[in-house]
Amino acid sequence: MTTEHPSHLAEALRSRRWLLSAWPWRALAYLVTTVPIAGILSVGLLVIGAPLLAAVNGLRLHGRPPSIALLLFLAMGSLTLLALAPIVSFPVAAVERWRVGLVDGRPLASSPWPGLVARYRSAATWREVAYLFWLGGFAPVAYWVFLVLVLLDLGMISSPLLAGDANQPVVIWRPIDSTGEAIPYAIVGVLLIPALWYAAGLLAALQAAVVRWVLARPVDAAALREVARSRTRLVGAYEAERRRIERDLHDGAQPRLTSLTLQLGLARLDVPEDSPAARPLAVAHDQARGLMAMLRQLVHGIRPQSLTDLGLAGAVRELADAATVPVDVSADLRDELPEIVETTAYFVVSEALGNVARHAQATRAAVRLTRAGGDLVVEVTDDGRGGADPARGTGLTGLADRVAAVDGRLLLSSPPGGPTVVRVELPCRR
């Protein structure tokens, strides 16, 4: 399935409107502008390639070894070619990165000149050199083959006009004596024009793909690993801070608030109901109880006590018992899980079951906890109406963000009419 406005040639080729769009002309412009660049590079390669091929044929066919002068020429020429290639490849690569925009709208970052010494030591440089040899070696051959096909097609189309010529034109392999014999070839030639347009697009798309593959700035794997480690450290530090806040609330603020609520309740018993202080005291007592309930919810939201006491499977069964619809729980967890993974999985189930109760109109739900390789897999399914869409609310989006924070992924299947399946995969690296 293609988009209405393809961003690159390979995508546009799958469109039914390919021949009616501007993409064939863009592909043709890309191929035509390749010819002078590839031609100059191929001449440079032939300076070394032609004598080398002659020497190899002489040795293979006649058993005649190459002369000392030819060997010296080939050695010096090859060394000179390799020495100049990193310098020549820099402007060529810059032009190619710019020129590929004719058939590919996705940006391709350019590399600044790193210095002469660094140029020879960079792996990206030798990727550009490899592209230089590909452009000067393979591209001309492919272009010649395509040109031959185009000329053959033009010969077939023009064969009725040449059939009366005294030179008796030959179409493909058969001589043409009359216009009647040439007309079928002309018809086939006209029918082949769309195929040639597609072939031109494929050739341009292939070259553009090679440009993106070879000339794209390589990903710094070491930097990515460091980013992943840094992200893990941040998530771990964040989780540790959450646990500290939980302990402070549970062991510090919560007992004091409980004591305050108790003292206010005792004071209400000692104050007559018709006293002027009775009503303000009752309001203060109710507010203290409300604050107590709010504090319990905050502590529960940081890390539920049931998760600490019962483990993930037990805490999920407790959530299922409290759900408004019947929930079947299946847990196959033999190994101990990292704390951050347990917490994330718990809130995934909690949010998913909350969505079932609020939106799904389901009569039944199921939760499955399994280990697959090094991942914890959490699946929550329901038989509700389906049609869940992250764009319509923040619940699923927040859930996906929570899962992504621990390097996991969330998959959602919710066709209209149901069923809805929420699958979360959490890596269990320690």
Automatic annotation (TrEMBL):
SMART domains per the UniProt record, alphabetical: HATPase_c (SM00387)
Coiled coil: none
Keyword list, A-Z: ATP-binding, Kinase, Membrane, Nucleotide-binding, Phosphoprotein, Transferase, Transmembrane, Transmembrane helix, Two-component regulatory system
Enzyme class: transferase
Domain Histidine kinase/HSP90-like ATPase: 340-430
One Pfam family per UniProt: HATPase_c
EC number of the protein: 2.7.13.3
Protein name in UniProt: histidine kinase
Taxonomic lineage: Bacteria, Bacillati, Actinomycetota, Actinomycetes, Micromonosporales
